[in-house]
Design goal:
The protein has helices at 2-10, 24-28, 35-62, 64-67, 77-80, 85-106, 108-126, 134-153, 161-186, 190-193, 202-226, 242-257, 265-271, 273-291, 293-296. The chain is an all-alpha fold and 297 residues long. Helix 3 packs antiparallel against helix 6 (85-106), helix 3 packs antiparallel against helix 8 and helix 7 (108-126) runs antiparallel to helix 8. The chain is globular.
């Protein structure tokens, strides 16, 4: 029983929220209420959760010694001994095989994206996370691949490349913020927990954070103006969502610089009510603009 609980913990259910971006394709293409498309995307969401969980298992197996030195990560299931290593290895193998098999049956293109996602993150676990800057880009690429995974599952008519850019930059924003907070929290022990942290410092990470914050906002504004969706054609209504995005970015920076949070973006999202409300209002406003004819008229 303890091993099962440890397995579920190591699969990181809280981090499955990242995979919600797989719905971007049908939401922004006006197919949210297409039942067939929604069900295919939902199955894709489940498979993304499983493949990401297999990567978490592999990553924890690779980092077991370093995690034992971390003030929080040492309580994870594998470093603490709650989940035995052989069970973790077997579970990771089963998850990879099952997910890729079902994914291929659903769509060969979707399976190809899953495989690419797996390869990049395996490279990250064994190699890329030790290379400064590339470690950040490797993690951020996962978000773009999640969006691409959703697009391969349905016939998307008009999906703007600006949205890919916005999501990629937002991912960089979150990853850089996480690196910054790890560096602050771990101090002198940073390098022993994550090797690349020895190659970063606060001025560099703060400069990078400012750059991607600005780029994220500008790119999103360009998306709202240039989006090719027929649901937005001839209108500038999507600009109404920009204040929510700006507030969310500022709120996250506030949490990083003032509250000292941000080392776990998924936890911040679930715990900080103002940030969560801003994201929900953004989503509701955009859906209303896309799907309520009275607003678009």
């Amino acid at each position: 029983m303890q091993a099962l609980i440890g397995l579920i913990r190591t699969m990181r259910p809280k981090q499955w929220t990242k995979n919600v971006v797989v719905y971007a394709g049908i939401v922004f293409d006006g197919q949210l209420f297409n039942v067939d498309a929604f069900l295919r995307i939902t199955l894709g969401f489940v498979l993304l959760c499983l493949i990401s969980s297999s990567i978490y298992l592999i990553n924890d197996l690779v980092d077991i010694e370093a995690d034992r030195q971390h003030p929080k990560k040492r309580f994870r299931a594998i470093p603490s001994g709650q989940l035995p290593v052989p069970i973790a290895i077997g579970s990771a193998i089963i998850l990879v095989i099952a997910t890729l098999g079902i994914g291929f049956a659903l769509s060969p293109y979707f399976a190809a994206v899953l495989l690419t996602y797996l390869i990049i993150h395996l490279l990250y676990s064994f190699y890329l996370k030790h290379i400064v800057l590339l470690d950040i880009f490797a993690v951020a690429s996962g978000f773009i691949l999640r969006v691409l995974a959703g697009v391969t599952l349905v016939q998307v008519m008009a999906f703007s490349p600006w949205l890919y850019a916005s999501i990629g930059l937002l991912a960089l924003f979150l990853v850089i913020g996480k690196r910054r907070q790890e560096l602050v929290m771990l101090a002198d022990k940073a390098g022993s927990v994550r090797a690349t942290l020895d190659s970063y410092n606060l001025p560099l990470l703060d400069d990078m954070l400012r750059m991607v914050t600005t780029a994220t906002l500008v790119t999103y504004i360009l998306y709202t103006i240039e989006a090719p969706s027929i649901l937005l054609a001839g209108t500038n209504l999507a600009l109404l969502t920009v204040p929510f995005v700006l507030y969310a970015l500022f709120r996250y920076l506030y949490l990083i610089h003032v509250k000292g949070e941000g080392s776990a973006p998924d936890e911040v999202l679930l715990k900080d009510r103002p940030l969560l409300i801003a994201i929900l209002l953004w989503g509701l406003t955009f859906v209303a603009i896309l799907y309520l004819p009275a607003i678009r008229a």
